[in-house]
Write a structure and sequence with these properties.
This protein is an alpha+beta fold. 24% of the residues lie in helices and 24% in strands. It contains 4 helices and 10 strands, in the order H-E-E-H-E-E-E-E-E-H-E-E-E-H. Helix 3 links the parallel strand 7 and strand 8.
């Protein structure tokens, strides 16, 4: 059987296409559609976004955004959560947030969905780190573990329920544990 190579498209062509649900991402000339999140994923994503915002947004330090498209360094991706420092959030003349994040987020979080390949998520985080992201997490809801990637350091693995997970320098007052992630999945 002969495989026909997939035709690469440009970033500009990709960005001109209508959005898909779930979101599609542009990585190395290819369009990759994210899998549809399930309950564990959505529970963690929603509550973790709220947890981060309850601490950082109120103090005008940073803001967490779920499913926000970020386009930079030749890619356009939609991490499960991005956290952007207050001074970098694009705003119009009235102070309202605007569309278009054209820089790597300081902190990005991916949550593994069923049938999602962890290597794809790791590749996205490594690309972000190479472009200026400070911290990336991959959360596995089934094993309740976190792989943390910090710029210039070896990845760290977290499974201890009470151990504090690493956060960027700007979020040092924020305390999140594996136990918190478990609680986000409970009623």
């Amino acid at each position: 059987m002969v495989q026909t190579p997939v035709q690469a498209i440009t970033l500009e062509t990709f960005l001109a296409q209508p959005e898909t649900k779930p979101a599609s991402e542009y990585i190395e000339g290819q369009i990759i559609q994210k899998p549809m999140p399930q309950c564990k994923h959505s529970s963690i994503q929603g509550d973790l976004t709220a947890c981060i915002n309850s601490s950082l947004r109120k103090a005008k330090i940073a803001r967490a955004f779920p499913e926000l498209r970020v386009t930079f360094s030749g890619r356009s991706i939609v991490p499960d959560i991005v956290v952007i420092t207050w001074d970098k959030i694009p705003r119009d003349e009235t102070g309202s947030v605007t569309n278009g994040i054209l820089f790597p987020p300081p902190w990005m979080i991916e949550i593994i969905s069923p049938k999602q390949q962890q290597n794809i998520l790791t590749g996205k985080i490594l690309h972000c780190l190479d472009s200026g992201t400070e911290l990336g997490w991959i959360i596995d809801p089934d094993s309740l573990t976190v792989l943390s990637y910090q710029s210039g350091q070896q990845p760290q693995f977290f499974a201890n329920p009470t151990e504090r997970l690493p956060v960027p320098e700007f979020a040092q007052d924020l305390q999140i544990t594996i136990e918190d992630l478990r609680d986000f999945m409970m009623d």
